[in-house]
Amino acid sequence: MSETTNTDNVDVRNTPPAQRHPLIFGRFKSLPVGQSFVLVNDHDPKPLFYQFKFEYEGQFTWDYLEQGPQVWRVRIGRAAPAP
């Protein structure tokens, strides 16, 4: 479980697919360390996880709160970067 604090939901179910990742990464970049948001999606956001892992290794937390079949909810948090 993450030690981050939930700040809000980012529901992308009605957002056009091409706009989803930029919206999510924009929200992540604005998070202070120790804060989080809950991503609400209509499918497993596993490709997003791999993109986070590639771009922000060690700087994010990822906790599934709900895993389908209709709705996925993931708490994404901002962790302190490794020294």
How would you portray this structure in words?
The protein is of the alpha+beta class and 83 residues long. The protein has a single domain (5-78), classed as Translation Initiation Factor IF3. The protein is 29% helix and 35% strand. The protein is built from two helices and four strands. It has helices at 17-29, 46-56; strands spanning 5-11, 35-41, 60-67, 72-78. A four-stranded mixed sheet has the order 1-2-4-3, covered by helices on one side. The longest helix has 13 residues, at 17-29. The chain is globular and about 40 Å long. The protein starts with a strand and ends in a 5-residue tail after the last strand.
Provide tags for this entry.
83 residues; alpha+beta; Translation Initiation Factor IF3; 4-stranded mixed β-sheet; 2 helices; 4 strands; 29% helix; disordered N terminus
List the helices and strands and how they pair.
Elements (H helix, E strand, L loop, with lengths): L4 E7 L5 H13 L5 E7 L4 H11 L3 E8 L4 E7 L5
Parallel strand pairs: 1-2
Antiparallel strand pairs: 2-4, 3-4
Can you list the strand order of the major beta sheet?
1-2-4-3
The topology string of helices and strands comes to: EHEHEE
Distance between the termini: 22 Å
- Name given to the CATH homologous superfamily: TusA-like domain
Which radius of gyration do the C-alpha atoms yield?
12 Å
Report the count of strand segments. Answer: 4
Shape: globular
- Number of structurally distinct domains: 1
DSSP helix fraction: 25-40%
What class do helices, strands and sheet pairing give?
A: alpha+beta
